[in-house]
Design goal:
Helix content: 10-25%
Radius of gyration: 20 Å
Distance between the termini: 22 Å
Strand content: 15-25%
Order of helices and strands: EEHHHEHHEEEEEEHEEEEH
Number of helices: 7
Structural class: alpha+beta
Largest sheet: 7 strands, antiparallel
Number of strands: 13
Length: 308
């Protein structure tokens, strides 16, 4: 099933992706699987998910404009509907966050376009969602991690702590994040999509109250190089700024470096981490670098070539 949802012609930036993203030199990320969706449905509920305003403004390159693929309704009933509803909610909230950012920017940045970020978030046809599943770590890998390789507030060694997702920045404007759900897959094994017969009612998997290790989870690095753990409550969303906004504002807003720390899991458990990120982005023809005239389409292709 997963292979049917993988699109190599889109550089795995639509549909299923696993082990295709290079976050470190010579290393591909195999610790998580991703399901990418273009959120064109936010502007038009009949949109099949193809990004781009029109043929005249959409860039060349299927990695940016491929139509969404979805699991069959008979296999995962309600998945697409629920996914789109949650993405729409996150974008609606992102509009409000953008409005607050605009108020701050207008008072601090000379020549800032009034309401710029809200307009970008509200009208974008290029917003992309990424459903993330961090696989339970191999037990040998867990045993090989020393206490020094887990954040305890005393280490500044980045290489030692970004063990579940390497340090990176997002390349859009605002990223909306759900709270992480931790599932013990030993206690509740995932049902295979290859199991004979229809999965009419996929079981609800009970989430753990939190990460099995208090040091496990999402971390950000500040401008002053301080590392801070970010814990998003289950009934809240989190937002962080990305590289496109940093370019547009000349560095007044900064892209937030972040990573995910594995932590120490309970022996005998297989705990997976699950979350959804929604990247609100400028339309392809928006200028993100006034000095060079670079558009978001050009910038996006550079990013895709850098990591895929």
């Amino acid at each position: 099933m997963k292979e049917n949802l993988a699109l190599p012609e889109a550089k795995y930036l639509t549909g299923w992706s696993h082990g295709k993203e290079a976050l470190k030199t010579g290393q591909y990320d195999t610790l998580k699987g991703s399901f990418y969706v273009n959120c064109g449905f936010y502007q038009d509920s009949g949109n099949r998910g193809r990004a781009g305003e029109s043929n005249s403004t959409a860039p060349d390159g299927p990695e940016l404009t491929t139509t969404n693929v979805w699991p069959p309704e008979s296999t995962l009933p309600g998945f697409r509907k629920t996914f789109e509803e949650l993405c729409n909610l996150i974008i609606d909230v992102a509009v409000l966050v953008a409005r607050a950012c605009d108020e701050f920017a207008a008072s601090r940045i000379e020549g800032y376009e009034q309401g710029y970020l809200e307009r970008v978030v509200r009208t974008s046809n290029t917003t992309k969602a990424r459903l993330l599943h961090y696989f339970p770590p191999a037990y040998g890998h867990l045993d090989s991690l020393s206490d020094a390789q887990r954040i305890d507030g005393s280490t500044e060694d980045e290489e030692a702590v970004d063990t579940w997702c390497a340090t990176h920045v997002d390349h859009g404007c605002l990223t909306g994040l759900t709270s992480a759900l931790y599932i013990d897959e030993r206690a509740h094994p995932p049902r295979s999509l290859n199991t004979p017969g229809p999965l009419n009612h996929p079981p609800t998997l009970p989430a753990l109250p939190g990460a099995p290790d208090p040091h496990s989870g999402l971390y950000i690095r500040s401008r002053m190089d301080a590392i801070t753990k970010v814990s998003i409550p289950h009934d809240c969303l989190g937002f962080q700024t990305g590289e496109a906004l940093q370019m547009i504002t000349g560095g007044k807003f900064r892209a937030v470096p972040h990573f995910v720390q594995l932590g120490k899991h309970t022996k005998g458990s297989q705990v997976a981490r699950n979350t959804l990120a929604v990247f609100t982005q400028p339309n392809f023809n928006e200028i993100v670098d006034k000095t060079t005239g670079k558009t978001f389409a050009q910038f996006s292709k550079e990013v895709a070539e850098r990591f895929h």
